[in-house]
Specification:
- The complex is a heterodimer of chains A (895) and B (170).
- Chain A is 27% helix and 18% strand.
- Chain A is of the alpha/beta class and 895 residues long.
- Chain A has five domains: 2-96, Ubiquitin-like (UB roll) (Roll); 223-263 and 686-774, no CATH class; 276-341 and 559-674, 3-Layer(aba) Sandwich (Rossmann fold); 346-533, Dimethylsulfoxide Reductase, domain 2 (3-Layer(aba) Sandwich); 804-893, Barwin-like endoglucanases, CATH 2.40.40.20.
- In chain A, strands 15-14-26-25-24-16-17 form a seven-stranded mixed beta sheet. Chain A has a six-stranded parallel beta sheet with strand order 18-23-22-19-20-21, covered by helices on one side.
- In chain A, strand 22, helix 18 (507-523) and strand 23 (528-532) form a beta-alpha-beta unit.
- Chain B is α+β, with helices and mostly antiparallel strands.
- Chain B has a domain at 39-143: 2-Layer Sandwich (Alpha-Beta Plaits).
- In chain B, 18% of the residues lie in helices and 19% in strands.
- In chain B, the strands form two sheets. In chain B, strands 2-3-5 form a three-stranded antiparallel beta sheet.
- In chain B, strand 2 and strand 3 form a beta hairpin.
- Chain B starts with a helix and ends in an 8-residue tail after the last strand.
- The chains are: A alpha/beta (895), B alpha+beta (170).
- The interface between A and B is large, with 48 and 51 residues.
- Strand 6 (132-134) of chain A pairs parallel with strand 6 of chain B.
- The complex binds iron/sulfur cluster (4 copies) and FE2/S2 (inorganic) cluster (FES).
- Residues 51-57, 68, 98-99, 101, 103-104 of chain B line the site of one iron/sulfur cluster.
- Residues 99, 102-103, 106, 108-109, 112, 114-115, 150, 203-204 of chain A line the site of one iron/sulfur cluster (SF4).
- Chain A: One of its GO terms (cellular component) is membrane.
- Chain A: One of its GO terms (biological process) is ATP synthesis coupled electron transport.
- Chain A: Belongs to the complex I 75 kDa subunit family.
- Chain A: One of its GO terms (molecular function) is 2 iron, 2 sulfur cluster binding.
């Protein structure tokens, strides 16, 4: 730590940062544009000028760019002396000379960093009377809008898009005043992280296109802290709502998890909340076989009757909250509760949970993954199944360049210099996957193997690291060499990371990953393990425990079930259609609870409309075992209600009194009492009674408008505001806003900082944890028990002549159920095709009849030179095989 | 006693003063154009809606009686609906002051009493007039940088033609 004097006040500052970061951490309002905590400094905008003095006797000082000047002990600087004030206001004036007169019609207006900085520097009257340069815009696809006139050439966009996220189709063109940030020609941005441009750009050049179509100003939206429901990473988000519709998703900083960036699935996949396919009323199967809307009372009467007709089984869901799943489990009894995932997935999930519990190598947070100095990925295309992990791994390869920079005495925040060094200094990333991934270009080696061989390679690596771990007999020589090389690279690191997951449907792959991490941990105590799971609450389900879906199918098929209750789960995505239809037909009552119409609700006898994650509160457990609470931002009209309330009402209608919950906190209390492993989840966020200075947290800004007019066309009397009985957030602009637990922050705002960059005001140190601690409680960090190596080493993969081993391929959009239903994301769904090796493509032709999940359909065939012989990939859950997710042998035939 | 007599006398004298009462509604008082009463939404000199649904009037309104929703047609922003609840309006004129396009204007028409409160809720159709109101010349899109139908990039006031980004000259 160094001591620096800002405007006469001493502050402690980290010596490895720059003066700008130190000033902002000290709470000074110092304007800046081009610097970004995770993108570093380039000194492009000249906005952060301050006066630095060489010592106490220096009265003249000199202007320096704070972001380009390292913190030195005893540094004396002034942010308020006349010369630097004048310098900064001149800089803004220059930046504004070409700025269009657009604020009223700019989506950034009201939360614009450029507006904030212009006001902060005091530049309020335009003196420039000459002509402005103009630019043509490009159509950048369904997610991002482009309005180039507004650019101030801070270079943040390309630094994020290219340098940080590895995108290639966005660049800076032309020069001088004409510099242009866009693509070579109009077209959809290819990066899976394009949405971050909206938050990274300090002006209105890049804005959120789906949001623009139902645009309102930041101050006019209710906010709530939420958690992304589109994969298991559990990125923290802010939801914004107005007038009953979800308007947009913003990143909510969590220093351990998503930090500053989200993937496009998380940002643009939530359109399903407003979709036309939402269920808004209970549906009952009429005598003519069609589903008809019915009243809540009639629906509950039937639900109660169905529940009284035993035996009842329940099928839970990895996309429903812990609380909803627990309510179902309580309703049907533990032995009748099924996790709602296929047998293979169930086994892998349980295995993942158990490995993470006992592994001596602890579970990596996303931020730790960014700091790993050697990474091995086994069998999982994380850049598609858990995209934000892919982005984190992209940063990990920079560790070597950080070391090189440290040796060359270049500070790490000097981004351009460190990146030039990094072109030849890269820490190793190895991938062993069945097909190419987005991370291929930055990996030192990409091995393309079938799942069995990935596992064998993994076991061999573990054996190279620790000879006590089981040896792979009859290992091919080439693979032994590869294993040796990987082991050496991992051993050369101090913070190695092993990443794997269930995408290959292979337990040995997970076990091999666990062996490697454990073997490394003996000599590298900072070894980390990261295992991904399929959905946002898969890990929560695993901790809750229950039978696999196959057991439910067997019970149904045996005619042992009278009533089956399906919670927010489209079973057609998990069970072959013919088997499912046959099994469900044997139950007397099929009750489906969901917020979206699906193939399952289509065959149910009774459908109960539940609330989406934007309309209910609950807890999700991420892949790292982090329990995180999401809060409701929207208050749907009855009969739509929380899933647990439907289940409670059903129990009441069946004359049961053991599910007598009135508030979410009561459900959570019962859950914690019933599941000792989950007790800590209670601490994920304060309970509903939490108050600061006697007030709840206000969810609307102090400038929320239109209260007395918005519904005046319906009734001129002011409606009573909605009541939020489950959470500590008010539903109006009344309440507290200021310092608060990070898990509750409904929006980021601070005086003079209307943009998202006000986040700086809520961290003790800019880029560090949120004040009061980053949200989330880790549930799997017990005391690791003595480790025993897994030894079930599979035999080598044997291609078959009559069939292909078809593995699920991840897609950003289209393989995950909820984002798949977001209208804005539809155009980003790639057409599904069977990827095979070039030789196989030759043999199969352009289309083939593929038998998968018990069905036969014609599919297009494409060649992928990376795919090993005998293996094929098909996108998971893609039309025409919505039920495909588990690897399986599949036959092909000429069409 | 004396004061009572004086009061009576003064009252009596008023019989011969000019009457202050006007025969409203037959006679109407003069209202200056800047008088703050019924609010209208005006059009620009080209006849298109001036309001760009920037939401500033709604934000500044102290009684929150303006509500609107932005929508867009080929780059041109306009309100999908625009609602003022006049039963709440205090005719403070802040909305007019906040408006960057001169769209929202207060007029001297104060005659807007109603028997039913719901009749005081005005929608865009009720607010939009066919002229420019008090400000005949201003056209926001002529000075803004957005391309809208009839005005391409580089065609606004004091704008250079769009840059050729593939050109090499600075
Ligand atoms: S980018 Fe900011 S300053 Fe520029 S037009 Fe948009 S809101 Fe105004
Ligand atoms: S487009 Fe935005 S982020 Fe990119 S240089 Fe311009 S102002 Fe900066
Ligand atoms: S005149 Fe005042 S009270 Fe009436 S709408 Fe305008 S801002 Fe609101
Ligand atoms: S301030 Fe003017 S342009 Fe903006 S929404 Fe109100 S009336 Fe429309
Ligand atoms: S922030 Fe320092 S030069 Fe841009």
């Amino acid at each position: 730590m160094a001591t620096i004097h800002i405007d006469g006040q001493p502050f402690a500052a980290r010596a490895d940062t720059n003066l700008l970061q130190a000033c902002l951490s000290a709470g000074t309002d110092l304007p800046y544009f081009c610097w970004h905590p995770d993108l570093g400094s380039v000194g492009a905008c000249r906005q952060c000028a301050v006066k630095q003095y060489s010592g106490p006797d220096d009265t003249r000082g000199r202007i320096v760019m704070a972001c380009m000047t390292p913190v030195t002990d005893g540094a004396i600087l002034s942010t308020r002396d006349a010369e630097s004030l004048d310098f900064r206001s001149s800089v803004v004036e220059w930046l504004m000379t070409n700025h269009p007169h657009d604020c009223p019609v700019c989506e950034e207006g009201g939360e614009c960093h450029l507006q904030d900085m212009t006001v902060m520097t005091g530049h309020h009257a335009r003196r420039y009377r000459f002509r402005k340069r103009t630019h043509r815009n490009q159509d950048l696809g369904p997610f991002v809008k482009h309005e180039m006139n507004r650019c101030i050439a801070c270079y943040r966009c390309v630094r994020f898009y290219r340098d940080y996220a590895g995108g290639e189709d966005l660049a800076a063109f032309a020069s001088h005043n004409s510099v242009y940030f866009g693509r070579a020609e109009s077209g959809t941005l290819e990066s899976d992280f394009s949405g971050n441009l909206v938050e990274v750009c300090p002006t209105g050049v890049f804005t959120d296109k789906p949001f623009s179509s139902r645009y309102v100003r930041k101050w006019d939206m209710r906010g709530a802290p939420s958690v992304c429901v589109h994969c298991a990473v559990g990125c923290n988000t802010i939801l914004n709502e107005r007038d009953g519709s979800l308007r947009r998703v913003l990143n909510r900083y969590n220093g351990e998890v998503n930090r500053y960036f989200l993937c496009d699935r998380g940002r643009f996949g939530t359109g399903f909340v407003n979709a036309a396919s939402r269920l808004r009323a209970p549906l009952l199967r009429a005598s003519d076989g069609s589903l008809q809307a019915t009243s809540m009372a009639a629906a509950l009467a039937l639900f109660g009757e169905a529940l009284s007709t035993g035996p009842v089984i329940g099928i839970g869901s990895p996309r429903a909250s812990l609380e909803a799943n627990f309510a179902l489990r309580t309703l049907v009894g533990a032995q009748n509760f099924h996790l709602g995932v296929s047998g293979i997935e169930h086994d892998l999930l349980t295995l993942t949970r158990d490995i993470l519990r006992v592994s001596p190598a602890r579970i990596a947070t996303l931020h730790q993954a960014e700091q790993a100095d050697a990474v091995l990925v086994l069998g999982e295309d994380v850049s598609k199944t858990a995209p934000r992990i892919g982005l984190a791994l992209r940063q990990s390869v920079r560790q070597a360049s950080f070391e090189a920079a440290a040796q060359a005495r270049i500070p790490l925040w000097l981004d351009a210099a460190v990146r030039s060094l990094g072109t030849d200094a890269r820490s190793p990333l190895f991938q062993a996957t069945p097909a190419a991934t987005d991370l291929d270009p930055i990996a030192v080696a990409n091995l393309r193997l079938a799942p069995e061989d990935i596992a064998r390679l993994g076991f061999a690596v573990a054996h190279c690291i620790d000879p006590a771990s089981p040896q792979v007999v009859d290992l091919a020589e080439a693979m032994a060499g590869q294993a040796r090389a990987i082991a050496d690279a991992l051993l050369a690191a101090t913070r190695p990371l092993v990443v794997s997951g269930g995408q290959c449907g292979s337990a040995p792959v997970l076990q091999a990953a666990a062996n490697i991490a454990a073997a490394l941990h003996r000599t590298r105590p900072e070894t980390r393990l990261m295992l991904t799971v399929a959905e946002c609450n898969s890990m929560g389900l695993a901790l809750l425990g229950g039978e696999p879906l196959d057991a439910a199918m067997e019970a149904l098929e045996a005619g042992m079930v009278a009533t089956v209750v399906v919670l927010e789960n489209d079973l057609f995505r998990r069970v072959p259609q013919a088997r499912l239809l046959h099994a469900l037909a044997r139950a007397r009552h099929v009750v489906a609870l969901d917020h979206l119409a699906s193939a399952t609700t289509q065959v149910a006898e009774l459908v109960l409309p539940t609330a989406t994650f934007a309309e209910t509160d609950g807890t999700l457990v991420s892949h790292e075992g982090r329990a995180q609470r999401f809060f409701q931002v929207s208050f749907p009209v009855a009969p739509v209600q929380d899933a647990w309330r439907w289940l409670r009402d059903g129990a009441k209608a069946a004359h049961r009194h053991d599910l007598d919950w009135q508030h979410l906190d009561e459900v959570i209390a019962d859950l914690c009492a019933a599941h000792p492993a989950l007790t800590a989840m209670r601490g994920a966020a304060p309970d509903a009674g939490f108050r600061i200075a006697g007030s709840p947290i206000r969810s609307e800004t102090h400038r929320f408008s239109g209260r007395t007019a918005i519904h005046a066309n319906v009734s001129v009397r002011d409606a009573k505001p909605e009541a939020n009985i489950d959470g500590p957030l008010s539903t109006t602009m009344e309440g507290y806003y200021g310092e608060m637990p990070a898990a509750l922050r409904p929006y980021f705002w601070a005086p003079s900082w209307n943009s998202g960059q006000s986040l700086n005001k809520f961290q003790d140190e800019v880029g560090g944890p949120l004040r009061g601690g980053d949200p989330g409680i880790r549930l799997l960090d017990g005391d690791p028990v003595p480790w025993r190596y897994h030894d079930a080493i599979p035999g080598a993969f044997q291609p078959r002549v009559d069939a292909l081993m078809v593995l699920p391929k991840g897609r950003l959009i289209g393989s995950e159920e909820l984002s798949d239903r977001a209208p804005a994301a539809k155009p980003r769904i790639e057409p599904a095709a069977l990827s095979v090796s070039p030789a196989m493509r030759q043999a199969l032709g352009a289309t083939t009849m593929l038998s998968l999940t018990g069905a036969v359909h014609a599919v297009a065939v494409v060649a992928d030179p990376a795919i090993p012989e005998g293996v094929a990939l098909f996108p998971a859950h893609a039309h025409p095989f919505p039920g495909f997710a588990d690897p399986q042998w599949a036959e092909t035939a000429a069409p | 006693m004396l004061s009572n007599v004086r009061t009576l006398w003064l009252t009596f004298l008023h019989l011969f003063h000019r009457s202050e009462t006007v025969g409203y509604p037959e006679t109407k008082p003069y209202m200056a154009p800047r008088y703050r009463a019924r609010i209208i939404l005006s059009r620009d000199p080209d006849g298109a809606e001036r309001c760009v649904s920037c939401n500033l009037c709604a934000a500044v309104c102290p009684v929150d009686c303006i509500s609107l929703q932005k929508t867009e047609d080929q780059g041109r922003w306009y309100p999908e609906y625009f609602r003022i609840n006049f039963s709440r309006c205090i005719f403070c004129g802040l909305c007019e002051e906040a408006c960057p396009t001169y769209a929202i204007q207060l007029t001297p028409d104060y005659e807007m009493s109603e028997y039913e409160r719901p009749n005081l809720v005005y929608e865009k159709e009720d607010l939009l007039i066919s002229g420019t109101g008090k400000y005949p010349d201003y056209n926001f899109y002529r000075v803004a940088g957005m391309a809208v139908p009839g005005k391409d990039k580089g065609e606004a006031e004091r704008e250079d033609p769009p840059v050729d980004i593939h050109g090499l000259l600075p």
